[in-house]
Structure formats: C-alpha cells, structure tokens
Amino acid sequence: MNIFFYFETAFQTIINKLTADNFLPKNLDISRVIFELPREASHGDLATNAAMVLAKQVGSSPRDLAKLFAGELQAIDGVTYVKIADPGFLNIGVKEKLWTHEIANIIFAGLSYGKSEIGAGKPVNIEFVSANPTGPLHAAHARGAVIGDVLSGLMEFCGWKVTREYYINDAGGQVDVLARSTYLRYCEALGRDIGDIPAGLYPGTYLKDVGEALVARDGDRYLDQPESEWITVVREFAIDAIMQGIKDDLIALGIKMDKFSSERNLVKSGAVQKAIEKLQQDGHLYYGVLQPPKG
Hints:
Layout: H1 3-20, E1 35-36, E2 46-48, H2 50-58, H3 62-74, E3 79-85, E4 89-94, H4 96-109, E5 123-127, H5 139-157, E6 161-168, H6 173-189, H7 206-218, H8 227-252, E7 259-262, H9 263-268, H10 271-281
Parallel strand pairs: 5-6, 6-7
Antiparallel strand pairs: 1-2, 2-4, 3-4
Helix pairs in contact: 2-3, 6-7, 6-8, 7-8
C-alpha cells in the first residue's frame, strides 16, 4: 500500500465518520479527490484537493470545508501538520516513517511490486510504431516503439491480455512511389546511370541494397519493361525487404510484435468497404465540402 493509497483510505474513513455525525451529506462522490505531491516542496509532503472538489456537493465554501477536513487529517497517524492554502487546498506534512514503510513493502514484494489484476484478463490491442514501409526506422520511431512496448508491459502486469500490433500502411500512393524509387535503384544495380533522383521519389541510399537484392533474385527481366509489367512485383519486394529490416530493428530493441496487419490485405478483403457501408446504413456518415483554409 503506497502512501497515496494510505491517505485515500484514511480519507474515506474520515468521510464515513463525518457523514455519520451529520457534518456531511450522505452519498458524497469523492472520486475526484486526490492526494499527490505538491508542485513546490515548500508546501509540504502531500497535498489534496478534497475541500475544493467537494465544496459544491456539501454546500459549503472550500475554505470552511478545508478547516473541517484539516482537523480530521491532523489525527491520522504519521501526520505532522495540515495547512490550508487559498482557496481551499490542504498541504500535509508527514513523518519519515510513512515513506520508509513503502520501501519495506517494495523489498518484500520484489518483482511483483505493483502487480494487479485490474484488467481481469480483458483483451486490449495496442497498435504502435507502424512506420510506413518506405524506409528504415529512425530515432523517433524507436522512441514510439519503446513507449508502446512499455505501455503494453504495464497493462500485462496489471492483468490485461495485450496484443501488440504493427499496422503496415502498404496501400496508397506512397508505396507506388517506393516501387518507382526501387526500380531506379534496380536499374542502377544493373549498370545504368540513373543520374539524380527525380523530385517526388525517395532518394535514400538504403534502396540501393533493395535494388541489388532484386537483381540477385530476378536478374534483368524488368529492365526496359513498361511500368505495368514490374510495379506490382517491385512494390511487394520493396515492402517485404524494408519490413524485414524494421522487424530486425525491433528485435534488436527487444520488442516482439504479436501481429503485423496489412492495410492492403484489409482493403482487398472488402472489410473496409463493408465498414463504410455499415456506417452509411446507420447514418454515421455524410458527404459535404470543407471550407477552404483562411488565407
């Protein structure tokens, strides 16, 4: 039991006592009452908004209610002082023993400290990273990957059944641009002088490796062929190659995704169109024109 829960539990006892003594109305909603560290250390060890958030329900001014709560909080074992700050916040000083008790709890619990079953085995899908498969992961992607994986681990620790999902944006114009960019590198790997990469295509040198790998697999069969003959094959090859690099990087970060979902496969399956039709049928979609942006 941490120090915040200690005071939340004690405050519930105070509410029950004051209600029984007719100082407070019955059935107060105290869900918004919190005990937290104050913004400034000079204000004390803990602070609570109890008087502020309950004043309206009680029909009292926050300061008058704070005076009532201050006397009760002062009686909690380990409290050294309670001060009222305008317009009705309560700042609390506590003895050192209350903090050191928690250290003992942490040592006793070991790796299970903080573990709970609040999730009750309910499924939750967390989709994170999901970088477009048009290039390797960069530092910002890695940051999102770590945050998502930590969140997944915390939710698992608290009883949820977590699925870690990577949604692959492999549909739309950006992957066709990837295919055309890769084809240039493919031609380059076959000895062609491609000059400067045209505007609108991906100039990254990482595609040199993809182009060379495509040559190693398929030779020169696509050289000088019309786009319609190679774009599908090159697009799928490039996506697969880049996604394999992304998967390797995630493994190197210690992150294992449970599911990789393809946008292209989702569209091909008809699931997106069915969802749109369902939304239309239920009256959740409408057609219109956005106002042009000012300026």
